[in-house]
Amino acid sequence: MPIVTIQVTDEGVSKAQKAELIKRSTEMLSQVLDKDPQTTFVVIEEVNLDNWGVAGLPALAFREKFNK
């Protein structure tokens, strides 16, 4: 019984996009690991941007520094 957790920032991921993530993750596990889609769980966690960092910086500071 695979469980996949996908974390994204809470910046407007739509219901349709979430559904697509669930569908494709389930299909991938079925194809690659021969797992039953009926027993595959996908959890999408939306993380507040204030709680997200990369390269030692809060996400917003990283964007300001590298997306000029």
TrEMBL record:
Residues of the active site = P2
The record's listing under Gene3D superfamilies reads:
Macrophage Migration Inhibitory Factor
Q: Where are the transmembrane segments?
A: none
Q: Record's InterPro entries?
A: 4-OT, 4-OT-like_dom, Tautomerase/MIF_sf
Kindly list the GO molecular function terms attached to this UniProt entry.
isomerase activity
Show where the 4-oxalocrotonate tautomerase-like domain sits: 2-57
Give the SUPFAM superfamilies listed for this entry.
Tautomerase/MIF
Alphabetic keyword roster: Isomerase
Has keyword Isomerase?
Answer: yes
Q: What is the E.C. number?
A: 5.3.2.-
Q: What class of enzyme is it?
A: isomerase
NCBIfam families in the record, alphabetically?
Answer: taut (TIGR00013)
Which family does this protein fall into? Belongs to the 4-oxalocrotonate tautomerase family.
Q: What is this protein called?
A: Tautomerase
Give the organism, scientific name: Catenovulum agarivorans DS-2
